[in-house]
Amino acid sequence: MKKIFGLLSLLSCGHLLIAQQKIDSNYANPYYLQRMEYFNQVPKQHNNIVFLGNSITERGKWQDLLPGMKVINRGIGGDNTFGVLGRLDGILAEKPARIYLLIGINDLGRGLPIAVIIHNYQRIIARIKQLSPKTKVYIQSVLPLNEAVLPYAYLKGKNVKVQELNVAIQQVVQEHHLTYINLHEVFADEQGELKKELTEDGIHLKPMAYVEWVKYLKAKKFI
């Protein structure tokens, strides 16, 4: 996989800290490229509502769940924050009214430091403000995992990192005066894990879970 070496600038306690990081920034796998080819061929829509993220977003039947709204699904299975950055300009060219972003679990799965993920969040937000400043941005929390049914070894033990990442994401959201959507209120059990009845593999959601997702967005007036 492509490796890049660079200096990551971190702002901490008012001091600029420079840390050398070894970063796996690869995202353009065959499935990603197939989805991008599809996105490039479908009719363009302006002033739409975009659900943007990885497979968790991709599996949502948003158009069915939100009838009458101009909703498009821009989820790509396996995607990460680098992948979102790589395709963001095409989405912003359509000047979406709203973007609902959920991304980060695949970054954690490949062992990327939270500082790198947050740096990419900052870049995503800056790009939206630059190219489509009227777009309203909703940042959704990274979902918890359910270890008991999770078959993927690379995601084992990542729930603590999910919690840490969400805390950092909330700080970014506050900094930019955006809207944070805490999906753990819907999907997490008392132990902070993904509710077993809502998943079959400990990470992805069953179809009915998306109904609860949209109910939550409506109840909280996020949509």
TrEMBL record:
Signal sequence: where? none
Q: Which Pfam families match?
A: Lipase_GDSL_2
Q: Which organism is it from?
A: Chitinophaga defluvii
Taxonomic superkingdom:
Bacteria
How is this protein named in the record? GDSL-type esterase/lipase family protein
Q: Where is the SGNH hydrolase-type esterase domain?
A: 51-208
State the coiled-coil residue ranges.
none
Q: Where are the transmembrane segments?
A: none
Q: What are the leading ranks of the lineage?
A: Bacteria, Pseudomonadati, Bacteroidota, Chitinophagia, Chitinophagales
- Entries under SUPFAM superfamilies matching the protein: SGNH hydrolase
